[in-house]
UniProtKB/TrEMBL annotation:
Protein name: Thiamine transport system ATP-binding protein
Species name: Rhizobium azibense
Family as reported in the entry's similarity comment: Belongs to the ABC transporter superfamily.
ATP-binding among keywords: yes
Domain of life of the source: Bacteria
Length: 239
């Protein structure tokens, strides 16, 4: 089997069994793009992301990122940062400190680190929120703070598990814009689980569709949107 290009993220015949569920993922994803991952509830989207993040290890197969085999690497050793739907922030720490954890879990922050944190908060529109506690933020503001923490980590791959699902549609569109803007600036690879076909159309360059524990389509977005032969994909895109 050909090895991963420097520019790709690749799962080579990755297999995993969790309880009664068997997963089998095999795909190549383009680096520097926004990749949307969709599929029916329980299909395996979070498991797919967890395998990329290193929260799950495959029973067999390999995960490659930019030419490096990361199959056995711990999450912190991988070139990834992760934004979840919620639980992104530590409730007892203010926003500035939460972002600082993205740079150094021991919070030994130098002057340049502190400037970096302020810059990241500015980029996500939270410049005046440094000393606020997470409980005092709205859902959208909390997700902006989670974004800022991912930004300061400066990893090549940003993994997002339904980051905007808890937000109302107006806020969701605003967060999509923010993601697109930051992506243009950083040119990192974004792999985002989304239940929202409009969001996929708005932001993605490449679509992955997962059904019953396996990838049934991984294709550039124009091809992904045009496929007529997959009933589950048609249902997702057109209701
Ligand atoms: N640790 C585990 N042990 C047993 N079963 C698990 C485990 N983790 C996930 N599963 C099961 O595997 C299936 C896929 O889960 P996963 O969370 O990856 O799906 P999903 O596509 O993200 O779903 P949703 O859209 O509902 O969030 C589910 O039926 C889930 O219950």
């Amino acid at each position: 089997m050909a090895s991963a290009d420097q520019d790709e993220i690749e799962m080579q015949d990755v297999r995993l069994v969790l309880g009664t569920h068997a997963f089998c993922f095999d795909c190549r994803l383009p680096a520097g793009r926004i990749v949307a991952v969709s599929g029916p509830s329980g299909a395996g989207k979070s498991t797919f992301l967890n395998l990329l993040a290193g929260f799950e290890r495959p029973d067999s197969g390999r995960v490659l990122m930019h030419g490096a085999d990361v199959t056995a690497a711990y999450p912190a050793e991988r070139p990834v940062s992760v934004v979840f739907q919620d639980n992104n922030l530590f409730a007892h720490l203010d926003v500035f400190t939460n972002i600082g954890l993205g740079i150094d879990p021991a919070l030994k922050l130098g002057a340049e680190d502190r400037r970096e944190i302020s810059r990241a908060l500015e980029k996500v529109g939270l410049a005046s929120f440094e000393r606020r506690m997470p409980a005092t933020l709205s859902g959208g503001e909390r997700q902006r703070a989670a974004f800022a923490r991912a930004l300061v980590r400066k990893r090549a791959v940003l993994l997002m598990d339904e980051p905007f699902a808890a937000l109302d549609p107006g806020l969701r569109a605003g967060m999509s814009e923010l993601l697109l803007g930051l992506h243009m600036e950083t040119e990192n690879t974004v792999i985002i689980v989304s239940h929202d076909p409009d969001e996929v159309r708005r932001i993605a360059d490449f679509g992955v569709f997962i059904d019953k524990g396996a990838i049934v389509l991984a294709a550039p977005l124009t091809e992904y949107l045009a496929r007529e032969d997959m009933p589950a994909l048609r249902r997702f895109l057109h209701g």
